[in-house]
Design a protein that fits this description.
Layout: H1 3-6, E1 13-27, E2 32-45, E3 48-55, H2 60-72, H3 80-90, H4 99-118, H5 123-127, E4 134-140, H6 147-159, E5 165-169, H7 177-188, E6 192-196, H8 203-215, E7 218-222, H9 230-239, E8 245-248, H10 255-263, E9 269-272, H11 279-292, E10 296-299, H12 303-310, E11 316-322, H13 323-332, E12 333-334, E13 343-344, E14 356-357, H14 359-362
Parallel strand pairs: 4-5, 4-11, 5-6, 6-7, 7-8, 8-9, 9-10, 10-11
Antiparallel strand pairs: 1-2, 2-3, 4-13, 12-14
Helix pairs in contact: 2-3, 2-4, 3-4, 4-11, 6-7, 8-9, 10-11
Length: 368
């Protein structure tokens, strides 16, 4: 009798946090940082172990092990919708967004990895593959970078990884940003150029700089204003050059958030992040909402985590190849994808999400 036929009750749920220093100081339009915290979740059932993770805070560890673990322990590993709903209900009085949502995201990703492993399938085959590869765009260009740093990073993504697009941070010093954009444009030639203000500007500022960036052939303006300002985002869609898209959604933690953003007509491209929005389950909900609103979808950060589901959802435009997460995933996970001609592809010879966490290599970064 197979594990599926017999049922596979979830048993041990473990979480650990690791803080990894950045390779250089980094900043965007609203904050600066010098490290990234990775929270890794492992769940056992039927003699297999599921792996999931998020980028958040070490404070998630007890929340995952005790509250979420208590909500799903002994459930059937094949009943992911039931486990997802139980976790959502367990955090009702904490608030479903923010840290609670990122914790649920990591556990949900581990559950999907576990289910695919119990079936001895790559996750994309379990989800249903719509595409064989996922286009990526290089993402970094932090506001702390020198002009030489920008040139080196952006030219590398274009020349070495084959990226068709690259994205840079703006907004720390808006008056200097047109110069920085010009440096980036010179480094990448005719490839697509995106800018991300992380909500640092107001509507009038954003409209003014969009006109300048339009002359520099910027085709994507991410979070020009706060993603909470849906009316402002909608207004900017009318004000920016016609060939410039407005993108937002990375801080969406629930399907209700994405629904409100889409109903407001706030974006040309919806961003969703499986490490924040409820895991693989939440990402598919966001993808379905984008589809029924006829809006393109872009996967935000954590490329190794998104790869399989990104191959399985409608209207996917591309995956963010974010510098910090790419570096961490290649350092600490066997099976992390490598780009070729601007795309990444799942390894169909590996079950689940195809990743194995390098415990020994990660120990020096362990904080919880």
């Amino acid at each position: 009798m197979s594990a599926h036929e017999a049922g596979a009750p979830l048993s041990r749920i473990r979480a650990q946090a690791y803080t990894i220093p950045t390779d250089k100081p980094e900043a965007d339009g609203t904050i600066a940082w010098n490290s990234t915290t990775l929270v890794v979740v492992e769940i056992d059932a039927g003699g297999r172990t599921g792996l999931g993770y998020t980028y958040a805070s070490a404070s998630l560890v007890p929340l995952i092990e005790h509250m979420l673990g208590g909500a799903i322990e002994h459930r059937d590993a094949f009943d992911i919708p039931g486990a997802w709903l139980a976790m959502q209900r367990s955090v009702r009085n904490l608030g479903r967004e923010g840290l609670a949502a990122t914790a649920i995201s990591a556990v949900d990703c581990a559950l999907w990895d576990l289910k695919a492993k119990l079936l001895d399938l790559p996750l994309v085959r379990l989800l249903g593959r719509l595409r064989e590869t996922v286009p990526i765009y290089g993402s970094g260009g932090f506001t702390t970078y020198t002009d030489d740093d920008l040139r080196e990073q952006f030219s590398g993504w274009v020349a070495d990884d084959g990226c068709r697009w690259v994205k840079m941070k703006i907004g720390s010093d808006p008056a200097r940003d047109p110069h920085r954009v010009e440096v980036a444009r010179a480094a990448i030639g005719e490839h697509g150029l995106f800018v991300d203000a992380n909500g640092a500007l107001d509507v009038k500022q954003a409209a003014m700089y969009a006109a300048v960036f339009g002359e520099q052939r910027v085709s994507w303006f991410e979070e020009p204003v706060s993603s909470d300002d849906l009316a402002g985002l909608r207004r900017l869609r009318e004000l920016v050059p016609r060939d410039m898209e407005i993108a937002a959604g990375e801080y969406g933690y629930t399907a209700d958030y994405f629904r409100r953003m889409l109903e407001a007509g706030a974006v040309d491209v919806l961003q969703a992040d499986a490490s924040r929005c409820g895991g693989i389950t939440g990402f598919m909900q966001a993808a379905n909402l984008a589809d029924v609103h006829h809006v393109a979808l872009s996967a935000h950060c954590a490329p190794a985590l998104h790869l399989h589901v990104a191959c399985a959802v409608l209207r996917l435009r591309h995956q963010e190849w974010f510098h910090d997460h790419v570096r961490i995933e290649h350092m600490l996970f066997d099976g992390a994808p490598m780009p070729h001609d601007g795309v990444i592809a799942p390894d169909l010879s590996r079950p689940g999400c195809g990743l194995e966490f390098k415990q020994a290599d990660a120990q020096r970064y362990l904080v919880h």
